[in-house]
């Protein structure tokens, strides 16, 4: 799956799952509130029924002129009988302070308190109070059920969202594959003539004396530019899937070799090259990745430099840096300049894939890249591999 597809799929899943989660959370919260009230209502109904039974006991005791109060109540309930002054006549618990006697039900400290006025005052009892603990077991079971439902629904919608996302990005994939086939066909057609031009150019320069030195130099620059474009397009087409042979690369020698490769372009633009390359800098990398990294940085430093400008190349055991005196990059574009097909200056040529390839290589080897730039003053790119 291509990076653009992954980004689109991730964004789709994020929006889809977030909206689904919010919807189910609101629904679950409403369901939980209603079910909790339903559970509490059942306890209240049981307390009302218990209050009626106790009142009947009071009536029976009153009719038999009993002065004792052998009131029978469920073990889950506590009872208190109060007179008109709300003093206890009989009680097996301590009623809470500041009770609102105008409300039949109150929730106090995890308990349900039921208040029932007694009229007439049987045996001097004016108020009947019942207290029972809220049934936390049923509430916890309700919470577990909702949690399991949310987890199950989340898993289901995650799988469903993934397949919907794949359908969503299918047209994008078809477009990318079409473009890749075009790039593959184009690069295939470019490879043979470019290789032929370069081979014959080297042969002419080696075996024959040619008076048209400047024209030959232009042909060499154009041919090497085409060759680099071919290599870059091939690298993108492989999309990280090419085989890498990680081995110790003499980066010092490779930097000098690549600078020599671009010497004609440097000379044509009259760029003064300053190097500070520490010898015997060895780094475990794939040879092609190292070449792609260096070539794109050097090529950009030449392309976006001023005619008659300067270019500084530094290499040591901690980092590689290349600095030019070119047009620079606007501060607001630094965060996105590495995106594919993004170009610092539309007046210059290119496809806008150089820094994208650099960032791919940097990400694969867990390097760090730092870009410092100012408009019309130049750009410095530093690749750091040692902490």
> Would you report the number of β strands?
12
Q: Give the strand line-up of the largest sheet.
A: 2-1-5-4-3
Rg calculated over all Cα atoms:
41 Å
Shape: rod-shaped
The CATH topology of the largest domain corresponds to Heat Shock Protein 90
Q: Please give the CATH architecture of the largest domain.
A: 2-Layer Sandwich
| Helix and strand sequence | HEEEEEHHEHHEEHEEHEE
What structural class do you assign from the helix and strand content? Answer: alpha+beta
- Approximate helicity band: 40-55%
Strand content: 15-25%
* Domain module count: 2
Largest sheet: 5 strands, antiparallel
Low-confidence stretches: none
Q: CATH homologous superfamily name of the largest domain?
A: Histidine kinase-like ATPase, C-terminal domain
CATH class of the largest domain: Alpha Beta
Mean pLDDT across all amino acids: 79
Q: Report how far apart the termini are.
A: 32 Å
Number of continuous helical runs = 7
Keywords: Kinase, Membrane, Phosphoprotein, Transferase, Transmembrane, Transmembrane helix, Two-component regulatory system
Subcellular location: Membrane
Transmembrane segments: 12-34, 145-169
GO molecular function: phosphorelay sensor kinase activity
């Amino acid at each position: 799956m291509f990076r653009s597809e992954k980004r689109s799929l991730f964004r789709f899943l994020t929006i889809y799952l977030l909206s689904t989660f919010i919807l189910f959370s609101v629904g679950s919260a409403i369901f939980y509130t209603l079910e909790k009230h339903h559970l509490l209502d059942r306890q209240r109904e049981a307390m009302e029924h218990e209050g009626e039974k106790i009142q009947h006991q009071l009536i029976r005791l009153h009719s038999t002129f009993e002065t004792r109060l052998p009131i029978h109540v469920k073990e889950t309930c506590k009872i208190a009988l109060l007179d008109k002054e709300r003093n206890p006549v009989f009680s097996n618990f301590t009623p809470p302070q500041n009770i609102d006697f105008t409300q039949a039900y109150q929730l106090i400290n995890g308990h349900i308190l039921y208040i029932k006025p007694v009229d007439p005052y049987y045996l001097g009892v004016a108020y009947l109070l019942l207290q029972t603990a809220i049934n936390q077991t049923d509430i916890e079971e309700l919470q577990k059920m909702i949690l399991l439902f949310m987890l199950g629904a989340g898993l289901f919608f995650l799988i469903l969202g993934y397949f919907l996302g794949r359908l969503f990005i299918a047209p994008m994939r078809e477009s990318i594959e079409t473009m890749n086939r075009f790039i593959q066909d184009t690069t295939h057609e470019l490879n043979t003539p470019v290789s032929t031009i370069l081979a014959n150019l080297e042969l002419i320069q080696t075996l024959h004396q040619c008076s048209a030195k400047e024209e030959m130099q232009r042909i060499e620059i154009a041919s090497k530019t085409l060759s680099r474009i071919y290599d870059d397009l091939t690298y993108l087409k492989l999309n990280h899937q090419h085989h890498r042979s990680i081995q110790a690369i003499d980066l010092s020698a490779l930097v000098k070799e690549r600078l020599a490769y671009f010497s004609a372009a440097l000379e044509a633009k009259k760029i003064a090259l300053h190097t500070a390359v520490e010898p015997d800098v060895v780094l475990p990398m794939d040879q092609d990745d190292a070449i792609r990294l260096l070539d794109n940085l050097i090529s950009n430093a030449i392309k976006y430099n001023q005619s008659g400008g300067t270019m500084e190349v530094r290499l040591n055991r901690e980092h590689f840096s290349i600095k030019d005196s070119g047009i620079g990059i606007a501060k607001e574009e630094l965060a996105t300049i590495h995106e594919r097909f993004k170009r610092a200056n539309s007046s210059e040529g290119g496809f806008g894939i150089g820094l994208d390839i650099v960032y791919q290589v940097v990400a694969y080897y867990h390097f760090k890249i730092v870009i410092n730039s100012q408009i019309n003053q130049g750009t410095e790119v530093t690749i750091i591999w040692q902490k």
